[in-house]
Design brief:
TIM Barrel; seven-stranded parallel β-sheet; binds alpha-D-glucopyranose
Length: 421
C-alpha cells in the first residue's frame, strides 16, 4: 500500500480525550486509584463537553504544522466516543448525548488533514475482560472471584465488532493506532496479546475495510510502523537490519489525558528539537494534547502548539518530505535531507564557525532558512591549519561556514545547503 503521505507528513497530533479528562489527573486514573465502575460512573454522569469544537482542534493542528490527527475512540477505561451498537457505555448515553467522531472526522477533512483513530485493546469496563495486573480491581479479591469465568474470546468478538463499526461508518480512515499488547512481558500477570485479540484476523478485517490504512505495531504482530513511546530513538529504527517507518509519540507534560496540576511542560525549543530529531532519524513525531472536560485544548497546550507553528511557518521545508542524510552532522546539530537540499539544524549555537566534514566542494550555496540570508562558506587550505591553532586540523573535504556570533532569534536556526547535482 502507498503510505508515502505518512512519512512525508512527519508531524501529527495525538488527542487523548474521554471520561478521565474530567478527573483531570492522568488517563490511567481508574487504574492508579483502583476505582470501581461505580465510582468512575461520576465522570460518565457529568460528561457534557459544551465547548467541543473539532474545527478548532483541526485549525490548531494545522497552524502548528501537523498534517494528521489521531483521536482516542476508546481508551483503556472502555468508554466509547461514538454511538456503538455494541454497548451502552458510550457518549450518546451521557448528558452530551451525541456522537463525537463524525464531527471530528469532518473537521479534519475540511482542513485537509489525514484522519486517525486510536483504539484501546485493553478494556477495564467490559464484563468479559479478565482481571489482570493492569486492571483497576487487581487487588479486590471479591471482584476477582466473581470475575473468574470471564471469557476473553467474547471480549475479542466485541473488539472486532467495534473496530468494524469505526472503519465502516466514517468513510476513509487513514491511520489506526491499537494500544496495547503485554502478553509474556515480565511484571504483568495475565498479560494479553495477539492470541487474545485474534490479531491476524483483526488486521485482515482492518485492511479489507480500509485498504489504504496505515496500522501501528501494538497488536502483538508486525504493523506498518513502529511506535517508540516517550523516548527518542538513538538512530533510525530497524527490524532485521531493515530501516522501518516509525513514529515517536510524545506528551507535552508526561500525561496523555488532561492533567490539571501537572506543570511539567516541555519548552517550545525542546519540542521543536524532538521533531527535528525524529526526522533526522527517519521518523515522525506524534505530539499529544489532552483536551479538558469541556472539550477545549487548554491555554498551555495552545501556547506550545503556537510556538511550534511559528517555527514551522519559516522552517517546515526541512521537515516535510525530508529524512536522514548520509552526511554526519557536527556535534549538537542534526541534518535532514530532501534531494539535493541538506538542512543543518543548529541546536547549540557555536561561536563563529561551523565545520562540516565531507561537504568541501559539495555545496553550491548556503543560507539561513528563516530569512534566506546568505551564509558565506569556504574550504580552508589544510596547509595553513598547522599555524592556525584556533581552527585546528581540518581535512580538505571540510566546509567551513562563517556564522554571526549572535544566534539569530529563532528557536532552532536552520541552514539550508544546496548540494551540487
Ligand atoms: C500507553 C498508555 C496510554 C497511552 C498510550 C500512547 O500505552 O497506556 O495511556 O494512550 O501509551 O501511546
Amino acid at each position: 500500500m502507498d503510505h508515502a503521505w505518512f512519512s512525508e507528513s512527519r508531524f501529527g497530533m495525538f488527542v487523548h480525550w474521554g471520561l478521565y479528562s474530567l478527573a483531570a489527573r492522568h488517563e490511567w486514573v481508574k487504574n492508579r486509584e483502583q476505582m470501581t465502575d461505580e465510582h468512575y460512573q461520576r465522570y460518565f454522569d457529568h460528561f457534557d463537553p459544551d465547548l467541543y469544537d473539532p474545527a478548532e482542534w483541526a485549525r490548531l493542528a494545522k497552524q502548528a504544522g501537523m498534517r494528521y490527527v489521531v483521536l482516542t475512540t476508546k481508551h483503556h477505561d472502555g468508554f466509547c466516543l461514538w454511538d456503538s451498537a455494541q454497548t451502552d457505555y458510550k457518549v450518546t448515553r451521557t448528558p452530551w448525548g451525541k456522537d463525537l467522531i463524525a464531527p471530528y472526522v469532518e473537521a479534519l477533512r475540511a482542513e485537509g488533514l489525514k484522519v486517525g483513530f486510536y483504539h484501546s485493546l485493553i478494556d477495564w469496563h467490559h464484563p468479559e475482560f479478565p482481571v489482570d495486573s493492569l486492571h483497576p480491581q487487581r487487588e479486590d479479591e471479591e471482584f476477582k472471584a466473581a470475575a473468574k469465568g470471564r471469557d476473553i474470546s467474547k471480549y475479542a468478538d466485541y473488539l472486532h465488532a467495534q473496530v468494524r463499526e469505526l472503519l465502516t461508518d466514517y468513510g476513509q480512515i487513514d491511520y489506526l493506532f491499537f494500544d496495547f499488547s503485554y502478553a509474556g512481558r515480565t511484571g504483568y500477570w495475565g498479560g494479553k496479546g495477539a492470541d487474545d485479540w485474534r490479531s491476524p484476523e483483526l488486521m485482515d478485517m482492518v485492511r479489507e475495510l480500509q485498504p489504504g490504512i496505515i496500522v501501528n505495531d501494538r497488536l502483538g504482530i508486525p504493523g506498518d510502523f513502529v511506535t517508540p513511546e516517550q523516548y527518542q530513538p538513538a538512530a533510525p529504527m530497524t527490524i532485521d537490519g531493515q530501516e522501518v517507518p516509525w513514529e515517536a509519540c510524545q506528551t507535552l507534560n508526561g500525561s496523555w489525558g488532561y492533567d490539571r496540576d501537572n506543570l511539567d511542560y516541555k519548552t517550545p525549543d525542546l519540542l521543536v528539537r524532538m521533531l527535528i530529531d525524529s526526522v533526522a532519524k527517519g521518523g515522525n513525531l506524534l505530539l499529544n494534547v489532552g483536551p479538558d472536560g469541556r472539550g477545549q485544548i487548554d491555554p498551555r497546550a495552545r501556547q506550545s502548539l503556537a510556538d511550534i507553528g511559528d517555527w514551522m511557518r519559516l522552517n517546515s521545508r526541512s521537515i516535510y518530505g525530508a529524512g536522514p542524510s548520509g552526511f554526519t552532522a557536527p556535534p549538537d546539530c542534526r541534518y535532514t535531507q530532501r534531494g539535493n537540499r541538506l538542512y543543518l539544524h543548529v541546536f547549540g549555537w557555536p561561536f563563529r564557525h561551523l565545520h562540516l566534514p565531507g561537504l568541501g566542494g559539495r555545496v553550491k550555496y548556503a543560507q539561513f532558512l528563516h530569512d534566506a540570508s546568505e551564509i558565506r562558506t569556504r574550504v580552508i587550505d589544510p596547509s595553513q591549519t598547522a599555524q592556525n591553532t584556533a581552527i585546528g586540523a581540518l581535512t580538505p573535504d571540510t566546509l567551513t561556514l562563517d556564522l554571526p556570533v549572535q544566534r539569530p532569534d529563532v528557536v532552532v536556526p536552520v541552514i539550508e545547503l544546496f548540494l551540487n547535482d
